[in-house]
């Protein structure tokens, strides 16, 4: 009789515990302890259920489950700018700079009257490896004259000098030769940058990484 009661009690505890975790599995940001607490849809990150990046789920950050707060380092859009009937996002920030910051390399003519109305703020010699950075990375001009290391997917790299801003807040005017605001992850490079990296500038945009040495 005693054994029977003990078994029933143990069964009740196990079932209750299972129900608790079953309910928690469907609750984004709910408390969890280990990876094994979660199903294949969610994963335990910092003690809370969240989307599993390996599975690629969007239960917590997409539809359903609510969206978790953005990380402090994220860069949010700062409104839009309408240019010739089309809206473009504006950014006062850029992704955080790391030892391998992802960016999009574009091509720019830095001479006066080139891709901008006036000459570059620091240097406008296209024969040199010079670049303009998106507003957030340009950081109010604090990086003007500084060197950055750029690496292409073909494993070639070079040191380039920051000479101007690729404006992510303004555009579509005479000063910007009618061009819309830059995206917030742009390195606008001279012909010399593309040549040194062994890239075809006719591609228009290529993926690169960069860091401050």
UniProtKB/TrEMBL annotation:
The name this protein goes by in its record: Kiwellin
Keyword Cytoplasm: no
Intracellular or extracellular location(s): Secreted
Any one GO CC term of the record: extracellular region
Biased composition (Polar residues): 95-108
Entry's family note: Belongs to the kiwellin family.
Region of interest called Disordered, as start-end residue ranges on this chain: 91-126
Parts of the chain that traverse the membrane: none
Leader sequence segment: 1-17
Family matches, as InterPro entries: Kiwellin-like, RlpA-like_sf
Keywords in alphabetical order: Secreted, Signal
Gene3D superfamilies for this protein: RlpA-like domain (2.40.40.10)
Pfam family, one: KWL1
